[in-house]
Design a protein that fits this description.
By secondary structure, the chain is of the alpha+beta class. The protein contains eight helices and ten strands. Among the domains are: 31 residues; 126 residues, Rieske [2Fe-2S] iron-sulphur domain (Rieske Iron-sulfur Protein), CATH 2.102.10. Strands 5-6-7-8 form a four-stranded antiparallel sheet, with no helix packed on it. A three-stranded antiparallel sheet has the order 1-10-9. A three-stranded antiparallel sheet has the order 2-3-4. The structure holds FE2/S2 (inorganic) cluster.
Length: 276
Amino acid sequence: MNSTLIIALAALVVLAGVVVLTAARRRETTGVLSRETRSRDESAAHTVSGKEFERAATAARSTALAVPKTVAVTAWVPPDPEVIGVSRRQFFNRATITLMTAGIGGFGAASLGFLWKGAEGGFGSKINAGKIDDIIAGIRSNNGFLYLPEARAWVTEYPKESLAKAEVIYASQAPVFAGMSSGIVALYQKCPHLGCRVPTCATSQWFECPCHGSQFNRVGEKKGGPAPRGMDRFAVSLNNGNIVIDTGTIFGGPSIGTNTTGQEAEGPHCVGGESH
Ligand code: FES
């Protein structure tokens, strides 16, 4: 028993000694760098720092232009236009100017032509239709109606026996009545309803509009259909035996119900059948 106790105490002493020695050794190694670490620190001491590297790079940078040592200077020679040809921009510029010039020129020529025509005696001016005897002969040879394209008018005879009535009805249209007194009525070809060109009807001896059936007697007084009045007309005057039709002014046709000549349909109608 005593020997066992002695052995146990000896073992405890040995263990305590080992523990003390180990702790003492650990305290000695704390704060000491390893050889490897020291070697790395020594090599790092010779490397360049980040700021030093940046400073060096900035100093090395330069904004000066690199100038070659020798520069060969040659005199400028204008390019040969034939070699260059026409550039695309020049082509479009010239094409635009040409087209604009052509357009403006065409418009100007058309305007001048229109004004010139008016000045020379086209529609809208006074038109010399020729000798009154020739006009009367022309009306009769054309079955009662003579068309004058330049005046856009139908010319018919006005019966002398109806002048007394006409003087009252057309009192406010003296230039029109003057033509009637000369035996002539010049009627605008345009229908007073919606503007169709009104043809004559050889059988009825009236004007009969094919568009909506308006009918007018030979002197343009309304006989039927939707037209709001008789056919419009122009002033007619005599000048040295010539009939002059003034197409510059259009006189409105006589009101519905006007019937100075009393002419009824002389045969079958060309349009519709009723007269009002
Ligand atoms: S346009 Fe002549 S009747 Fe209508």
